[in-house]
Amino acid sequence: MIDAGARVPIRLVVNGRARELAVATHALLLDVLRDDLDLKGAKRSCDSQVCGACTVLVDGLAVSACTYLAVEADGCAVLTVEGLAEGDTLHPIQRAFVDAGAVQCGFCTAGMLLTARALLDEHAAPTREQVLHYLRGSLCRCTGYRKIVEAIVAAGGGDR
Amino acid sequence: MSARPLRVVGRPLARIDAIEKVTGRARYVTDLVLPGMAHARVLRSPYAHARLARVETGRARALPGVVAVLAGADLTWCDPYFGPAFRDRPILAIDVARHEGEPVAAVAAVDEATAAAALELIDVDYEPLAAALTLEDALAPGAPLVHTREPLAGHFADLSSLRPRPGTNVCHQFHFARGDAATALASADLVVGDTFRFPAVQHYAMEPHAAVAAWDETGGLTVWASTQNPYSVRVELAKMFDVPLARIRIVVPHLGGGFGSKTYAKLEPLAAALAHAAGRPVRLAASAAEAFQTVRRCSARVTMRVGFGGDGTLAAVHCDAQYDVGAYADIGPRVVQKATYTATGPYRVPHVDLGGAAVYTNTTPGGAFRGFGVPQLAWALESLFDVAADRLGRDPIDLRRHNLLGHGEAFAPGDTPIDGKFEESLGRAAEAIGWTLAGAADRGRGLATMLKASIGPSVSEAIVRLHADGSVSVLASAVEMGQGTRTVLAQIAAEVLAVALARVVVVTPDTAITPYDQTTSSSRSTTMTGRAVQAAAEDVREQLLRVGSEALGLPASDLALEDGAIVTATRRLAYPEVLARRFGMAGGELIGRGVVAPGRSAAPLGGSTPFWEMAVGAAEVSVDEETGAVSVERYVSVADVGRAVNPLLLEGQDEGGVVQGLGHTLFEEMAYADGHLLNGTLLLYRVPRADDVPALECRFVENADGAGPFGAKGAGEGSLVPVSPAVANALARLTGVRLRDLPLTPERVWRALRARERRAPGAI
Fold first, then answer.
1. CATH class entry, domain B371-453+607-758
2. What is the mean pLDDT of chain B?
3. Which superfamily, per CATH, for A92-155?
4. ∠B715-B720-B722 over CA atoms, to 5°?
5. For chain B, what are the domain ranges?
6. Which end of chain B has the smaller Cβ count within 10 Å, N or C?
7. B632 with B688: CB under 8 angstroms?
8. Distance from B112 to chain A by nearest Cα, in Å?
9. A149: which chain B residues are within 8 Å (Cβ-Cβ)?
10. In sequence order, which residues have a C-beta less than 8 Å from that of residue A6 and are 6 or more positions away?
11. B1 falls in which pLDDT band (50, 70, 90)?
């Protein structure tokens, strides 16, 4: 086994729960979430900050966990798709995705939802143009995007 | 039982896996963790074509944490070749690497970082060979040969007639003729023809290929695989590793998209070989960049000539289609023959002469991709239709309508007659795009049609179990890759058995548990797997009625199923009570079985298509004359689907198909130079984003005339096919320039606009 190098302690609040971890300095946030914390909702696809499948919120800001060092998140609150719902009650953006048919294969869904959550936190009732702007870093190969855009606008209470 | 209105089928219901997907609980292959699981990485050829003079793996084996290292020469204990058409693809390159990115060696280690470090310790001496990188290279006299040995046949019966051209790179030729096309073209009033090009395109299913393989103490093999074809993968592995089918389990959790990229074996043989060598489970998860080196759409060069009578009646079509299938045949030969067979689209053509060739090159293997070879040919035919309309002074819709095959009309002797109403689709598309209305001067409108055969013959089997509490299991092996097949199958079972959708569970495909299904492709699942599920549910219904009839002392014809119970005018017997009567105790279950196996037929391809996929697309475009950038402003898709089992999911399918089609129409292309793929990552390969999507409407023609359950038939590929010609036709009507090469990049369009200005005004 190759030497993983020095491990450094970090503290995260992940989906509201305090976590203390020892991570390699080069460890990616995506791997720490998926492998160390068993939060498999964020997905790996492009490895290059293009597709958005790995998007999580770090202190409310949408980041690509595939290119974000875990140590950079030290002291931060991390929100993943597993933390969106309150118990069995879906977050409005999750409900909107279900109702609008905005989910197909589901591989982009977690990233889409968190990107949308970041948008809604900033603009409670986003316009279609704001939605399109936010989705520039989120790819979907199944839906053709129309229902995703519709769901996000609807979650903000806007016109469908 | 009298027909009652449908309660579950036909409704726009949320998909049954929606909650697990929006909460992050849905599991994909790469989410799986097994005890003792090792992680694999693959060393890939940097050359398009090279002899492997030496592959030295000793230093990699010695690295602590490495549990297995394999190179091609190590694969003496199994049959290392696979492929559905020709068994021409080795698990790891043996002696020769035939494309950039071909797996040359692989390592399994305790973690990915160790596996990656071990790859650095493998020494390979490559001796670069002359490469055939394009169709032109590969077909030139004296071209370097991608394969020199006689290929082994794969497992497709209807490709037993595989016809390679020995001593060349042509791995399969297909020819279909009717009448005398040469004479008809010579005497036609108008002949239009040209050569059209369609690019190599990457599927980019967002989940890259992945497999986790584990051998058990009985010598059995389990592979959790991101595959659209668990049963095809099983038969490949059985042959390669000499294991009985019954000892191989292929389990398929959710797929993160497929689009054809996950048909037939891809990484599974390598994962299985590594797990065997390591003596522990091995996870092989490709990166998105590696998907570019695994499979792509077959690029094509299509030369077509179409002859018309003076009144616009089609006289003849001559087609010479060359498909670049890359370094290994995969399913390319079948792509070529199936598509070439329908090169004439949905039109009545008395004289046809259609030739197709699958050509090896030293590039990423080409395989199945949504549309299965048809988009490449529709690009040519539907473009030429508009050229002809222009020359004949006819409206393009009018010229198409004049030549459309009618409902019930034969496409070819022995094959299924046309099972939809093109006339209706064409009319609705024209209306929705406002064809006859005056448009803005800076907008152009264009339209195109498509016809595609599904796979024939093919087999689907299903089991439906009604449990003691009245809940239902559907066992079927159609793979959920986003298209919604599990929801559709659940709807069908719920409809037949009169239970709530939430009472139906569709079991994850697992070849040890869920019965045979040939493939999740070709838009076949709703029709074929759906019919098997319908028959299995009807089998259960018969059993319910038999027991109910005895229990109530009434003929079965007096009984109906309603809301989880057998009902008469006065009585109600809930399913748990029916089962208790049947078994005399609170146990047991009713098991129903459904089989759909139409067998071979006299149709030209050896099996009749179970249905025809039919669609029309209409585009409204604008162009920036300064830059050549084309904008698709509006798009309408109309698909003839028989019946939409779930309109919400179907709409999603067709919207996705249109947008995927816009990708290869406007910008997607795997670009090669000097033997290297220039844009093999998502940083460099652009797929459509949300802000690329035009105002989009997807509509359906529903006449309940499909061969599937409740009059449904297949859909989901059709919307993609007309996109390119519809957009190009719109551009031509707007600007007078006719593009023949996809994608319609700004540079190509700009050059064509400049060339138009140099010509006499009005010329095309």
1. alpha beta
2. 96
3. [2Fe-2S]-binding domain (1.10.150.120)
4. 110
5. 18-26+458-596, 35-129+203-291, 371-453+607-758
6. N
7. no
8. 10
9. 690, 693
10. A24, A25
11. very low
Q: Do B206 and A39 touch (CB under 8 A)?
A: no
CA pair distance B516, B532, nearest whole angstrom: 11
pLDDT in tens, B329-362: 999 999 999 999 999 999 999 999 999 999 999 9
Inter-chain CB proximity A98 and B22 less than 8 Å: yes
pLDDT computed for residue A4 by the predictor: 65
- Whether residue B658 and residue A140 make contact (CB cut-off 8 A), yes or no, is no
State how far residue B17 is from chain A, nearest Cα, in angstroms. 9
Give the residue from chain B lying closest to A99, CA to CA. Answer: B14
Q: Do A141 and B660 touch (CB under 8 A)?
A: yes
Crossing angle of helices A146-155 and A109-122, rounded to 10°: 40
Does the fold of domain B371-453+607-758 match that of domain B35-129+203-291? no
Residues of A in contact with B260 (CB under 8 A): none
Which among A141, A145, A148 is the top mutation candidate for probing chain B, defined by the most B β-carbons within 10 Å of its own β-carbon? A141
Q: What are phi and psi of B33, to 5 degrees?
A: -125, 125
Pick one of 3.40.50.720, 3.20.20.370, 3.90.1170.50, 3.90.226.10 as the CATH number of B35-129+203-291: 3.90.1170.50
Give the gap in angstroms from C-alpha B755 to the nearest C-alpha of chain A: 34
Residue-range domain boundaries for chain A: 7-83, 92-155
Rounded to whole angstroms, the Cα distance separating B444 from B440 reads: 8
Q: Which residues of B touch A47 (CB under 8 A)?
A: 287-289, 681
List pLDDT tens digits, range A47-85.
999 999 999 999 999 999 999 999 999 999 999 999 999
| B257 with A90: Cβ contact below 8 A | no
Taking CA atoms, B421 is separated from B424, B430, B638, in Å, by 6, 15, 11
Has residue B91 got a pLDDT over 80? Answer: yes
CB contact under 8 A, A109 and B31: no
Q: Does domain B18-26+458-596 have CATH number 3.40.640.10?
A: no
Q: Do A131 and B109 touch (CB under 8 A)?
A: no
On chain A, the residues whose CB falls within 8 A of the CB of B208 are: 45
Contact A144 B652 (CB under 8 A): yes
Q: How many residues does chain A have?
A: 160
- Fold classification of A7-83 is Ubiquitin-like (UB roll) (3.10.20)
